[in-house]
Amino acid sequence: MALSVLGFLGSNFMFLTPYGTELRMSLAEMVIMTQHRWYAWFLVGGAERDRMVEALWERITSMGEEPQNFNLVQVAPRKQRTKDELIHVEDIAGKNYRGKMMWVYDPHSIRMVVTSKQGWGERITEMVKRTGAVAGVNAGGFDDPDGLGNGFAPIGLIMSDSQVLYQDADGKQPIVGFTREGKLVVGNYKLEELRELGVKEAASFYPRVILDGKPLITSGEGGTGIQPRTAVGQKADGTVIFIVIDGRQPGWSIGATEREVQDLFLAQGVVNAGFLDGGASSELVVGGELLTKPSSRYGERRLPSAFLVFDEPDKIVVTSLGRG
């Protein structure tokens, strides 16, 4: 009887009060950004869930359409650096989150690496150790329709050393990548456009939040709630900054909004920035050690792709998904 009363009161609160309605909408936004977005039906109903998904994609598309001014970033020619000279990592914290910020001082050192396990994703700690990388973060999105957590169903486009390793659709896609000159590319692009720009390393994810030094979220907190996050930005001198936010762990870190991550980048003088896959995939590895706390029930998640940092990037050969 007590459980029935609590359930009745909770339902009334969630569905019949303004605060409860706001809470349901926020929770639905969070669920929509996971691989189980269709479960948002329980919170807002099927029609509203579909409307929210459509609105999300319209927003993402609009944020990625305007071309970048690549002249705003000037990258120095690559030079040999020690591992200690390549990166710097600091703790960051906000109202609801804890995480890490990593500076990469030479963007030429960043390579796209994919899993070496046929039919399975690979943990970033394993990728880093296998390739001898200095550090790594999760990169593009992937699908896990059966909930098995094997990390071997990438979404979008993956490029390494100018070679297409995976592509599941034609037309424009939300891209995060680096050109041969080491300039960060974030936005909606066709493959032909990426080739014209000289994009060398790339994965698919969204949204772009800073364009040519201007924030794209100017009101509200962004449309995907409080989440674990991974994002990348670049300063005018070419320095790349990765941000990884832990989340979904009360007592440690709940997560951050898109606006909070955007503002962290702006405070560092970033001129272009966008998000990589987040949620339970968000993690940072340095020297083979996992420095963040992923929220996945599997522990450190198996993933199809990662951006890794190398002191000798030209020696790394990535052949194809699951075989390099």
TrEMBL record:
PANTHER family in the cross-refs: N-ACETYLGLUCOSAMINE-1-PHOSPHODIESTER ALPHA-N-ACETYLGLUCOSAMINIDASE
Domain Phosphodiester glycosidase: residue ranges: 132-310
Pfam families: NAGPA
Protein name: Phosphodiester glycosidase domain-containing protein
Annotated source species: Gordoniibacillus kamchatkensis
